[in-house]
Design goal:
This protein has a single domain, classed as Glutaredoxin (3-Layer(aba) Sandwich), CATH 3.40.30.10. The longest helix has 14 residues, at 144-157. A hairpin with a 2-residue loop joins strand 5 (104-109) and strand 6 (112-117). It starts with 34 loop residues before the first strand and ends in a 9-residue tail after the last helix. The protein is 30% helix and 17% strand. The chain is built from five helices and six strands. The strands form two sheets. The chain has a four-stranded mixed beta sheet with strand order 2-1-5-6, sandwiched between helices. A two-stranded antiparallel sheet has the order 3-4. The protein has 166 residues and is α+β, with helices and mostly antiparallel strands.
Length: 166
């Protein structure tokens, strides 16, 4: 019996650099600002779209300047230290986090998971999630949905449009 998950999958993605990516192996040392960990791999069908549509936006780059961004190969067995100081590998950490989608994005603050993106989102939603973590809005709203509603309404009240599909 063959399991779908055990089948060889073709490489569809070549890792791409980004000016905001930092090379860190001890993620527990990130304490001065929130941390975003992007998990990619060579079979990531959505990674090019992440780079081309979300990470390339000037407004996204402004947000990324305010957060520590680390990209890890989700299949790597390189030793790292996770956000709570445990020795692990990216491959093992992906399993522990139960991430099945690539790119998988998990945002932390002071070692606590605050938000994750484990499905494709539009740029507006991606940036909204970044603001939620970077501005530590999770401390002021009971749920992310409460924040998202207030954020969207504040944008609309200011006379701007909410462009979800860009």
């Amino acid at each position: 019996m063959h399991k779908l998950s055990q089948r060889a999958r073709p490489r569809v993605y070549t890792f791409r650099d980004h000016p905001n990516f930092e090379t860190l192996t001890n993620l527990s040392a990130v304490t001065d600002k929130p941390l975003m960990v992007i998990f990619e791999d060579e079979i990531c069908g959505g990674c090019d779209a992440l780079h081309d549509h979300m990470l390339a936006q000037p407004s996204t780059r402004d947000l990324l300047d305010r957060i520590t961004v680390v990209r890890l190969d989700a299949r790597s067995t390189q030793l790292i230290v996770d956000v709570v100081g445990r020795d692990t590998t990216p491959q093992r950490w992906v399993q522990d986090l139960e991430l099945s989608y690539r790119p998988g994005i998990v945002m932390f603050d002071q070692g606590q998971e605050i938000f994750r993106i484990d499905a494709f989102r539009w740029t507006f939603h991606f940036q909204q999630a970044l603001r939620y973590v970077i501005d530590r809005q999770w401390r002021h709203y009971e749920t992310y949905q409460d924040y998202a509603r207030a954020d969207r309404n504040a944008i609309l009240d200011s006379g701007q449009d909410v462009h979800v599909r860009n």
